[in-house]
Design a protein that fits this description.
This protein is mainly α. Helix content is 79%, strand content 2%. The longest helix is centred in the middle third of the chain and has 28 residues. The relative contact order is 0.18.
């Protein structure tokens, strides 16, 4: 064999190795999730049952809803530490309203407006208008929100008096209807993929077939698992349906709207975004309002599921939300990330929590493990940027 042939062989093998390494890097979170699920399935027989997976999906929704908003915040190189307090305050405000005779159909949107929009606009105003670091403003609101919740309840829990309210967090879509919903969603997802491919080819953009195949396989596997779980046990939980709508809205917003492109531009270079005509103040205010509204919604769903509200609800939720976003591949430096990655990150955190609980891991150790995962995820992001 000639020297040129040897060089060519080495080049092909090297290209294949680089291709494999890049594939692993791009899908590290998904691979970790699959490995974790398989490992827990062997470690505990109860993990892969339809009942446990259905309960797991409901548990993920709370952090998942917050994490969709947190993705947008981190995309613009911001942070929001007040989300946990917003969860607790919104749960308290909503349940107190119903105690005083306000109907559920009024109490829920009123809470989203008063707590969600109110706190979000407050945070966004100081951050966007006066360039105060978001860490400081949201840290202050974390304390204020928790103090307001404790003040309104005198430090005690508030029971739910409405018979309708518990359905938000505890009801299920019947199995037959769930089957139809999943089939329609799967069809829409397939149509969306084909439409994106056609649009890319029409604009002369090369289609990444590897990424397309991975996304297709994940989608098929996800829908197949969801179909099995939700048709075998009660149906789709209402909170899961709400989370799915919010997740799809987040994906569409970032991928297919001007507002989404502005977030990437703002996170990439704020000065350049301002010079290009983007209204930075308005964009930041919208982003911080969105995450507060989503946090308020998460608090309402949690209070509904627990059939009561405590001023301490939502403690440390900001940790799980930030962990889901960072583990999902969104850069803390801003300008890079996807809601789809955040969903996988939220699932990874949820599976980890569920698995450690089934295996009897002490709560204190669970916090240590999650903290280490965040550090490793940030380290991986920093290493990627140095290359």
């Amino acid at each position: 064999m000639s020297a040129d042939s040897n060089v060519a062989g080495v080049g092909v093998n090297g290209a294949k190795e680089n291709h494999l390494i890049n594939f692993i890097k791009d899908n590290a979170t998904l691979i970790a999730l699959i490995v974790l699920v398989i490992g827990l399935s062997f470690a505990d027989d109860a993990f892969f049952t339809a009942r446990n997976l259905s309960n797991l999906s409901r548990q993920v929704t709370i952090i998942g809803i917050i994490a969709v908003g947190m993705t947008m915040v981190i995309l613009i190189a911001g942070i929001d530490l007040s989300v946990g307090s917003v969860v607790g305050l919104s749960a308290v405000v909503c349940t107190l309203m119903m105690q005083y005779g306000v109907p559920t159909v009024i109490a829920v949107p009123a809470t989203l407006l008063i707590v969600g929009v109110g706190i979000g606009a407050w945070n966004g105003f100081w951050i966007a208008k006066f360039n105060i670091p978001p860490f400081i403003i949201t840290l202050g609101m974390l304390t204020i929100g928790r103090g307001l919740a404790l003040t309104l309840t005198n430090g005690s829990s508030v029971p739910v008096t409405s018979k309708v309210f518990p359905l938000i967090g505890g009801a299920y879509i019947p199995p037959m209807m769930s089957s139809i919903v999943l089939i329609v969603c799967a069809a829409l997802a397939v149509y969306s993929i084909f439409r994106d491919v056609q649009q890319s080819r029409a604009h002369g953009v090369e289609v990444n077939m590897q990424e397309l195949l991975v996304n297709g396989a994940v989608m098929i596997g996800g829908f197949a698992l969801a179909f099995h779980v939700f048709t075998s046990y009660k149906g789709i939980p209402v909170p899961v349906a709400i989370f799915a709508v919010i997740a799809f809205a987040g994906i569409y917003t970032l991928n297919s709207t001007r507002f989404g492109r502005r977030l990437y531009a703002l996170g990439g270079n704020e000065d350049a975004a301002r010079l290009s005509g983007i209204n930075v103040v308005r964009t930041k205010m919208i982003v911080y309002t969105v995450i507060s509204v989503l946090s308020a919604l998460a608090g309402i769903i949690l209070a509904s599921r627990l059939n009561g509200a405590s001023p301490n609800l939502g403690t440390m939720f900001e940790l799980d939300a930030i962990a889901a976003v960072v583990i999902g591949g969104t850069s803390l430096a801003g300008g890079s990330g996807k809601v789809s990655g955040t969903i996988i990150g939220a699932l990874l955190i949820g599976v980890l929590n569920n698995g450690m609980s089934l295996l009897g891991v002490v709560t204190f150790y669970q916090l240590i493990i999650k903290g280490l995962i965040i550090i490793l995820a940030v380290w991986f992001d920093v290493m990627q940027k140095k290359k």
